[in-house]
Amino acid sequence: MPPLPTIPLDHKTRKPDEMIERSRSFRDQLQRRRSVRHFSDAAVPLEVLRNCVAAAASAPSGANKQPWTFVVVTDPELKAQVRAAAEKEEEAFYGGRAGDRWLRDLAPLGVGPDKPFLEKAPALIVVFAQRKGGDGDQHYYVNESVGIAVGFLLAALNDAGLATLTHTPSPMKFLREVLGRPDHEHPYMLIPVGLPVENCEVPDIKKKTLDEVLVER
């Protein structure tokens, strides 16, 4: 195949002091982000969700295949179906499917099989990974590509002032059935989105320090 035509790069070069300030501000904003399980039922403008999904869909991907689908669910009946199916899988998970070590690690976070946030949150964004295209087209580095897109999505939603939760009931194939997605799409992550309830509280967890995660050579 011939190479693609090229266009000028749309890039804004910044001075070092501005780069430092912007990186510090973005760091501080993301460090305040927390997983939320107690959502207000206040509506979220669909335009905000669409903009954030568009930001996520701008992520890089293997061979530019863009192997993702984002399903935004706001219909109360569909959210109730998602919750019922998710809780069925979670009951099996907490009832024996998960190992003792896994359950011990989860215990301090106060989580369990009940998932009321799946109905309470005004929107759910279900991310699907496409192992192949609908026409059988080969996709590459799918997990890596979709993971980057989810990171973009969480950062965009956080920047818009919304709270999120990364929820991964196991297994998740029920999401494809409930939402009527085709066989080549595989559920990757379920993200409740909205505003936190007033006076919302979250577990007092600590993140690793920069010295623990950064190696400079």
Show the helix and strand layout.
Blueprint: H1 16-31, H2 46-56, E1 68-73, H3 76-97, H4 100-106, H5 117-120, E2 123-130, H6 142-159, E3 163-164, H7 174-179, E4 185-194, H8 210-213
Antiparallel strand pairs: 1-2, 2-4, 3-4
Helix pairs in contact: 2-6
Tags for this entry?
4-stranded antiparallel sheet, globular, 217 residues, NADH Oxidase, alpha+beta
Description:
With 217 residues, this protein is α+β, with helices and mostly antiparallel strands. It has a single domain (38-196), classed as NADH Oxidase (3-Layer(aba) Sandwich). It has 8 helices and 4 strands. It has a 4-stranded antiparallel beta sheet. It is globular and about 55 Å long.
Briefly, what is this?
Helix 2 packs antiparallel against helix 6.
The poorly predicted ranges are none
Query: Might you state the CATH topology name?
Result: NADH Oxidase
Write the CATH architecture name.
Answer: 3-Layer(aba) Sandwich
The main pleated sheet reads as: 4 strands, antiparallel
Any idea of the CATH class? Alpha Beta
* Arithmetic mean pLDDT: 96
**Superfamily at the CATH H level?**
NADH Oxidase
Structural class: alpha+beta
Whole-number radius of gyration?
19 Å
Q: Which H/E pattern describes the elements?
A: HHEHHHEHEHEH
As laid out across the biggest beta sheet, the strand order is 1-2-4-3
Separation of the first and last Cα atoms: 40 Å
Total strand segments:
4
